[in-house]
Amino acid sequence: MKVTAQPSGDTQTFLLDGELDASSAVVLDAELNKPELLSYKKILIDCQRLSYISSAGLGVFISHLQRLQDANVKLVFFNMQEKVFNVFEILGLDSLMNIVQTEQEAQAA
Prior knowledge:
Largest sheet: 5 strands, mixed
CATH superfamily: STAS domain
Radius of gyration: 13 Å
CATH topology: Transcription Regulator spoIIAA
Strand order of the largest sheet: 1-2-3-4-5
Number of domains: 1
Strand content: 25-35%
């Protein structure tokens, strides 16, 4: 999987491309662990090219959620494919995470 970071003003967007599994979760975890992320107001996760997410991939987001909330940084997912959304939904994470359809909605969240 490829993780691309795109900063813009008070927002950091991560483009996820490929499969987020145990091996690629390490890369994403390192990106989300960077201290400078706490200086943003929003972290947007573009899931348009995310074709698969494992429990390890979900664990990365869950492990950073509280730290981001404590720093008043919103974590918003958008452009999620249906099969990836179904994983979030089955585990009840759709009620814990902010998931919207479009980038415009994510920016407005």
